[in-house]
Amino acid sequence: MQDSVPVAIVGAGIAGLTTALCLARQGLATDIFENADALNEVGAGLQLSPNASRILIELGLLPALEDVWSQPDSIALVDGRTLRPLAEVPAGANARSRWAAPYGVLHRASLQKILLDAVQSEPCCRLHLGRRVEGDPVASVAAATGRRPTVVVGADGIWSQVRAAIPGAGAVRFSGNIAWRLLLPRAEASACLSPNRVTAFLGPEAHLVAYPLRETDGFNLVAIIGGKPTETAWIGQDSEERRREFVAAFEDWHRDLRSMIENAAAATYWPLCVVDDGAWHNWRDIVLIGDAAHAMTPFAAQGAAMAIEDASELARCLAAFPDAPAAFARYEHARRARIARVRKRAAFNRFAYHARGPVRTARNIVLALKGPEALAADLDWLYGYGAFGHKRG
């Protein structure tokens, strides 16, 4: 698609900024519109698996990433009640050799800053902060810039305003799970938290993921439990009632983990919502990426990675095809099956991580029999995307 009118991107989060950089590498200019007056990323830590880090490295961002991220030696599954190791997938140097890209962990704000700095240094990208795109996105962008965009990319997250302009788009639905996010100083961390690995502690109807953050000299903890949605279905500050629900979900866990949860000075809870299957574009001039199109539960730790993959694929399609509808069709063809498979893996992980009774026992036996090499091979389709002949799309 060759046009002198910049592509308009709504949303300056990870999805939107990555899309702008990918389009710039294809020689396409962008106007990026962000409702906020300043970019202050919420949330805490982020896992960047090789399928995502590979794309960021292609964008020239490796030196900036190396300044802030950690590359864990392994990803471990551990019984949350006994602290008995269940399984371990090699990462570190093994990730780089097996999947041709690193597995890194960092703070979301760090990645957002890296992307923002790159966008602000890119002549093809223009960022408009404090600019709300409402109603008809095409008309709204045209009013702001004085020219009608040929393409509007909705990268505005799960509560996307752009999605409302696409007939048949998926609806937002509460998943039935709540994520609690905690940042723990290293001095307050139990010895069961390793500075060299990502650890997923598993238990009945709950699990807890912990990994180091260099930027805070501590650990990021994400605990996921069943729960009720809040009135706003959005991020909430800790409260006495919510904290009781949180602590109760881990009452039978190992005392070291339970103590960290009970004594955490501050925590936020995040009702986990998804976007059901639906249309991703209007066959004319509006297309969705990332959470705006297909927000999923985090049980496979692939939310940000799928947005980064979307950005790369959409940029290639817009550069390769002469008109937007053809580009949208190719983008959707490339991404639908991939997203469906990742959703299926996330659903399986939820079942396996939160298992109880005989299912929990069977899970532990299977994990013990498989071993590290077989578990890594099970992830080749996911982490090897774009490398060694693993075709993107």
TrEMBL record:
Gene3D superfamilies, alphabetized: FAD/NAD(P)-binding domain
Residue ranges crossing the lipid bilayer per the database entry: none
Superkingdom assignment: Bacteria
A Pfam family the protein falls into: FAD_binding_3
GO molecular function terms noted in the UniProt entry: FAD binding; monooxygenase activity
Keywords: FAD, Flavoprotein, Monooxygenase, Oxidoreductase
PANTHER family reported in the protein's UniProt record: GERANYLGERANYL DIPHOSPHATE REDUCTASE, MONOOXYGENASE
Protein name: Salicylate hydroxylase
Species for this entry: Sinorhizobium glycinis
